Amino acid sequence: MSFFLKSTQQPLGAILPLDEVKRRVIVDALDKCGGNHRLAARLLGIGKSTVYRMARQYNYQSPQMQGKSLSIVSQMNPPEIWPRN
Fold first, then answer.
1. Into how many domains does the chain fold?
2. Of 22, 21, 55, which is closest to residue 36 (Cα–Cα)?
């Protein structure tokens, strides 16, 4: 039996549509950044207007400021895309 036939007989598990994956990533980033769209955009490496647009599209509601999620982000080293001052 060929490799292809063997691999197609095993279940793949749940495969999410790309739109759902994008929604989860945006919502998770915004939650971890305390609703800060600009910071979420920088961490994701996308434009802030894209984050704003997607947040509107997914009806994102900003959470209450949570010290735990903000402290995790503040401990991270900034990615290389951040401008150095």
1. 1
2. 55
Question: Residue 8 domain-assigned?
Answer: no
Residue 40 falls within a domain, yes or no? yes
Burial category of 22 from C-beta neighbours within 10 Å (exposed 0-12, middle 13-18, buried 19 and up): middle
Handedness of CA 25, 35, 63, 57 (dihedral sign): negative
Segment 7-19, tens digit of pLDDT: 556 566 888 999 9
List pLDDT tens digits, range 41-71.
999 999 999 999 999 999 998 876 445 555 5
Whether the predicted model's global pTM rises above the 0.85 cut: no
Is there a contact between 71 and 34 (Cβ–Cβ < 8 Å)?
A: no
In a domain, residue 6? The reply is: no
Which residues span the domain enclosing 65? 15-74
The secondary structure of 33-72 as a DSSP string is TTT-HHHHHHHHTS-HHHHHHHHHHTT--PPPP-HHHHHH
